[in-house]
Design brief:
This is ABC transporter substrate-binding protein. Keywords: Amino-acid transport, Signal, Transport. Helices cover about 40% and strands about 20% of the residues. With about 425 residues, the chain is α/β, with parallel strands linked by helices. The strands form four sheets. A five-stranded parallel beta sheet has the order 4-1-5-6-7. Strands 12, 13, 14, 15 and 16 form a five-stranded antiparallel beta sheet that branches. Strands 9-8-10-11 form a four-stranded parallel beta sheet, sandwiched between helices. Strand 10, helix 8 and strand 11 form a beta-alpha-beta unit. It is globular.
C-alpha cells in the first residue's frame, strides 16, 4: 500500500490555487417544501429552478468565502405541505446535513418548525411574510411578498376596468389562504369595490360547486380566487365557464393557464388578471438577475423541466441569489453574519428591481422585501405583463386598512402566535395534464 506523508499532503494543498473549489467540502442548503400532492406546483417547480442555479454556480466555481470557493449542495425533503412531515424534514436537514439556509414555502408547514429552526439559528426563507414575527429573527421573506403583492393586481384592475363595481371572493381556510383573503378584502375596499359574497372552504376540498355557485348567484362583476391552490383554481375556472360566467376573473396565480385556455376558450380567458409572469415576457428582457437573464433562465427551465413552469419556478432562485450575494459580502455562511450583510444594504435589488425591508407594523419585524411587482393579464391565450406597480406606494396609503382586515381574520403575528394553530392538512390532488 502506497502512503503519503502529512508534510507532502500539506505541500500539495498549498500548491493548489486559493480560488479552487474546496474538494469534499460543500455549503449545504435545505429545500423543505411540497414536492408532491395538492400544493406540488408551489414546491417542485421551485426545486427545479434551484437545480439550475446550483449547477450554474458550481460550474462557475462555487460560492466565494474568504478567498476560497466551495461547491453548493441542495438537499431536498418532501413535506407534502404536511406539518408533521415538515418537522421531520427540518430535523433531518439540520442535524444530518447542517444546512446553512433553509428554503420553505411557509404557512402551515412553518408553524411546527418555527421554534426548532429559530432555536438552532437556521437562516430560513419563506414565501409568506405572514409567517414573520418578533420571535422569528432568522426568518426572511426576500422574494415573494405573498399575499401583499396581490394589491397591485386589484389596483390595476380598478384603474383599467372602472366599470367593474362588485366582487365575490373565496379562499381556503388555512395559513396560506386566510391572509390572502384579508389582503384582497383590503385591496378591493381601497379600490372602492363592493364585496357581495365571500366563501371560505376546506383546503382539502376538490368540489368547486359549493364555492363558485354562491359567488355566481351574487351577480358580482368580478370573481376572485384569492390564493387558492392550482387544482382548485383550475376546477373553479372551468366550472365558472361551464356555468356561463363571462365576467372578470382575478387570482393570485394561474399556473398551467395554457391548459385552461384549451379547456375553456381564448375569449373566456382573455383579460384574466394574476401576479406571476412567464419569464420570456418582453418586459423582462432588459432585467438582469439570477445566474442568467430571465429569458435565458426560462429557456433553460423549459428545456430541462418541460411543462412544469409555475409561480414559484424562479422564486426560490431569487432567494438564493440574494443569499449568495450576502454570503460573499460577509465572507461567511453564519446566519447572523449573512443576515447582517443583507440588512446593511438598506435595500436589495430583487427580481423586479429595487426593494426595501418592511413589515414591522404588520409582522412585528422588518424581514420582508417589498418593491415593484408585475400585474399579468392573459392576451390572446398568452400571459403578458401589463404593468409594474409599487407595493410600497400602496402600503403608504392603505396599510391601516390592511392591518384592520388582517386583524379581522386573526392573521396578525400576535394573533397567530396566540392561537398556535398549525392549520389544516391538505390532501393530494394534482391538476390533470
Amino acid at each position: 500500500m502506497k502512503t503519503t506523508s502529512f508534510v507532502h499532503q500539506l505541500t500539495a494543498r498549498a500548491a493548489l490555487p486559493r480560488l479552487s473549489v474546496g474538494m469534499a467540502e460543500s455549503v449545504n442548503i435545505g429545500f423543505l417544501g411540497p414536492l408532491s400532492g395538492r400544493v406540488e406546483s408551489w414546491g417542485l417547480p421551485g426545486l427545479n429552478g434551484c437545480r439550475i442555479w446550483e449547477d450554474g454556480l458550481n460550474k462557475a466555481g462555487g460560492v466565494l468565502i474568504g478567498g476560497r470557493r466551495y461547491p453548493i449542495r441542495i438537499h431536498s425533503y418532501d413535506c407534502g405541505y404536511d406539518p408533521e412531515r415538515a418537522l421531520e424534514g427540518a430535523v433531518e436537514l439540520v442535524q444530518k446535513h447542517n444546512v446553512k439556509l433553509m428554503l420553505m414555502l411557509g404557512g402551515d408547514t412553518f408553524a411546527p418548525v418555527r421554534d426548532f429552526l429559530m432555536r438552532n439559528k437556521v437562516l430560513t426563507s419563506t414565501l409568506l411574510p405572514t409567517d414573520l414575527s418578533p420571535d422569528t429573527p432568522y426568518l426572511i421573506a426576500p422574494s415573494e411578498a405573498h399575499p401583499i403583492q396581490n394589491v397591485t393586481g386589484v389596483a390595476w384592475l380598478a384603474e383599467n376596468r372602472p366599470e367593474l363595481k362588485t366582487v365575490a371572493l373565496c379562499s381556503q381556510a388555512d395559513l396560506l389562504g386566510l391572509p390572502a383573503q384579508a389582503v384582497y378584502r383590503a385591496a378591493f375596499k381601497a379600490a372602492d369595490k363592493q364585496i357581495l359574497q365571500e366563501v371560505q372552504y376546506d383546503p382539502g376540498s376538490s368540489d368547486p360547486a359549493p364555492v363558485v355557485d354562491p359567488m355566481l348567484e351574487s351577480g358580482a362583476d368580478i370573481l376572485c380566487w384569492c390564493s387558492s391552490y392550482a387544482p382548485m383554481v383550475h376546477a373553479m375556472t372551468e366550472y365558472a365557464y361551464a356555468k356561463g360566467f363571462r365576467g372578470q376573473i382575478i387570482s393570485c396565480t394561474m399556473d398551467g393557464y395554457d391548459r385552461l385556455v384549451e379547456r375553456t376558450s381564448v375569449d373566456f380567458m382573455e383579460g384574466v388578471v394574476f401576479q406571476f409572469p412567464d419569464f420570456d415576457d418582453p418586459m423582462l428582457s432588459e432585467k438582469a438577475f439570477f445566474f442568467n437573464r430571465p429569458h435565458k433562465f426560462f429557456e433553460e427551465y423549459s428545456r430541462r423541466f418541460p411543462g412544469s413552469w409555475s409561480a414559484v419556478s424562479w422564486e426560490y432562485v431569487a432567494i438564493l441569489d440574494i443569499w449568495h450575494s450576502a454570503v460573499e459580502k460577509a465572507g461567511s455562511v453564519a446566519p447572523p453574519s449573512v443576515l447582517a450583510a443583507m440588512k446593511q444594504l438598506g435595500h436589495v435589488t430583487h427580481a423586479f428591481g429595487h426593494a426595501e425591508w418592511w413589515g414591522e407594523d404588520i409582522f412585528g419585524i422588518s424581514n420582508a422585501l417589498v418593491g415593484d411587482w408585475p400585474v399579468v393579464t392573459i392576451r390572446e391565450g398568452k400571459a403578458r405583463i401589463a404593468e409594474f406597480k409599487s407595493i410600497p406606494a400602496w402600503l403608504a396609503e392603505h396599510s391601516g386598512l390592511l392591518k384592520s382586515e388582517m386583524e379581522t381574520l386573526g392573521q396578525l403575528w400576535h394573533q397567530r402566535l396566540e392561537s398556535d394553530a398549525p392549520g389544516s392538512e391538505v390532501s393530494s390532488r394534482a391538476v390533470d395534464g
